[in-house]
Specification:
Layout: H1 5-13, H2 22-32, H3 35-51
Length: about 80
């Protein structure tokens, strides 16, 4: 799976992948994402990172996976 900045950020915050580099993250994501979701998972992660789990001020109050998110500072961003 190609890993851009949005996918890298979302996968690390949600603990789908805790790899340091993008190439390691892509390999890990291929292992943890079920095959039936693989076709769309790339776009879902990008869109989630672009509009909800944004870098500087994530919209944790609007996040559909807030309850399972591992982002340490999420309480600072709840709206």
């Amino acid at each position: 799976m190609a890993v851009d900045t949005h996918i890298f950020r979302v996968s690390n915050r949600t603990r789908l992948s805790t790899r340091q580099g993008r190439s390691g993250s892509g390999t890990k994501l291929l292992k943890v994402i079920p095959a039936e979701f693989m076709l769309h998972a790339h776009h879902w992660l990008i869109l989630h990172g672009r509009y909800t789990c944004i870098a500087r001020k994530p919209k944790c109050g609007q996040c559909p996976v807030y309850d399972v998110c591992g982002f340490r500072n999420k309480s600072d961003f709840v709206e």
